[in-house]
């Protein structure tokens, strides 16, 4: 049975940053359930126009590059059983048994799965995109349809700030990624009209001036649509503006989805018997040797995730006595 000081579960930027920073301080092993490392951040795109919009994606790429070469890791495996024993944990995966003194859960979040909640989406979904789909299209350069669109609506807070659905929290990242996508689309296609439906704007943080410029380039409504209907030619948005129910027509709609705990985070909550917050995010038990960082504990952006992972590695280094 392999013995390590710290077992990091999850190979996104949180897990890679904490494992990289701990290299000199103890024996560290990282388990990632997918075939490759990097998590959600490596699926996101650079959103620069003629200037950098400070989205943090290249900082994430740097963490992944460093972790890829510097961290001992096993991909395609995840803890299946855990036994607490004196001085740590015995952990079984599909293929091996491990003993670890401390565990870090960095199992992350996923974009809100809008397809599982029909109340957020009506129609055939050919002209309704999630923000995550748009990020991936931008990354792969697949924006041909967008070149033909003359009007777009961005709908904010999809899967967040909805206490009735037990998703009352703010997902932190979606106002900022949406405004960066707006800036990028307007830079590529200056003729497009963009309407922006939101309650308010969370734009504090890196590059907020550029985000404010993007917010000024759109028509903003302080209201969220209550229904969308798609047909072959476009999408009708049903929304209450100034107390009156009204409908507007667009060539396409982008849903700015928030974050919920990943299925892997939810499984780890059960395995380690950890409490969960709204959205399934976990509350760690450091007093028992179970730590957590990154979006496994709640929505946060790339910069905050990396800072949190670095702080945690200091704390763990001190516990390991190095
Ligand atoms: C649409 C969208 C756009 C975004 N845009 C931006 C942006 O422009 N700027 C920004 O700063 N942030 C942005 N974010 C947020 C950013 O993606 C996160 O801050 C970042 O990915 C958090 O990293 P993480 O390591 O905590 O989690 P993740 O990236 O989710 O990584 C978790 C890793 O753990 C693995 N895992 C899960 N469960 C298990 C398990 N049980 N066993 C083993 N492995 C497991 C997963 O496979 C994954 O590799 C965006 C998010 C979304 C959804
Ligand atoms: S911070 Fe974002 S917008 Fe700026 S260069 Fe890096 S990836 Fe591109
Ligand atoms: S970041 Fe913006 S879009 Fe996302 S939940 Fe918060 S207020 Fe809504």
UniProtKB/TrEMBL annotation:
InterPro entries on file: FAD/NAD-bd_sf (IPR036188), FAD/NAD-binding_dom (IPR023753), Metab_Enz_Cyan_OpOx_G3PDH (IPR051691)
GO MF annotation terms: oxidoreductase activity
Residue intervals of the FAD/NAD(P)-binding domain: 5-120
Pfam families, per the entry: Pyr_redox_2
Database matches in Gene3D superfamilies: FAD/NAD(P)-binding domain (3.50.50.60)
Keywords from the UniProt entry: Oxidoreductase
SUPFAM superfamilies found in the cross-reference section: FAD/NAD(P)-binding domain
Superkingdom of this protein's organism: Bacteria
Keyword Coiled coil: no
Protein name: CoB--CoM heterodisulfide reductase iron-sulfur subunit A family protein
Species: Candidatus Caldatribacterium saccharofermentans
């Amino acid at each position: 049975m392999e013995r390590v000081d710290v077992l990091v579960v999850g190979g996104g930027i949180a897990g890679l940053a904490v494992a990289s920073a701990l290299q000199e301080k103890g024996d560290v092993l990282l388990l990632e359930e997918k075939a490759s490392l990097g998590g959600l951040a490596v699926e996101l795109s650079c959103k620069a126009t003629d200037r950098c919009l400070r989205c943090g994606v290249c900082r994430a790429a740097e963490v992944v590059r460093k972790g890829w070469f510097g961290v001992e890791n096993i991909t395609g495996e995840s803890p299946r059983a855990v036994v607490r024993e004196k001085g740590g944990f015995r952990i079984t995966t599909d293929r091996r048994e491990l003993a670890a003194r401390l565990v870090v859960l960095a199992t992350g979040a996923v974009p809100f799965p809008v397809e599982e909640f029909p109340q957020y989406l009506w129609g055939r979904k050919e002209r309704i995109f999630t923000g995550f789909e748009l990020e991936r299209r931008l990354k792969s350069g697949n924006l041909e349809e967008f070149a033909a669109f003359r009007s777009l609506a961005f709908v904010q807070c999809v899967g967040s700030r909805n206490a009735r659905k037990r998703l009352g929290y703010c997902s932190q990242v979606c106002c900022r990624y949406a405004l960066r996508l707006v800036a990028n689309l307007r830079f590529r296609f200056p003729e497009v009209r963009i309407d922006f439906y939101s309650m308010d704007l969370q734009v504090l943080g890196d590059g907020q001036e550029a985000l404010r410029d993007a917010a000024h380039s759109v028509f903003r409504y302080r209201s969220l649509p209550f229904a969308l209907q798609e047909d072959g030619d476009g999408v009708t948005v049903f929304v209450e503006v100034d107390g009156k129910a009204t409908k507007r027509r667009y060539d396409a709609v982008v849903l700015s989805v928030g974050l919920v705990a990943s299925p892997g985070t939810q499984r780890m909550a059960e395995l380690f018997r950890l409490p969960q917050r709204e959205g399934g995010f976990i509350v760690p038990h450091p007093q028992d040797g179970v730590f957590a960082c990154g979006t496994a504990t709640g929505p946060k952006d790339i910069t905050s995730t990396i800072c949190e992972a670095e702080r945690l590695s200091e704390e763990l280094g001190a516990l390991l006595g190095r």
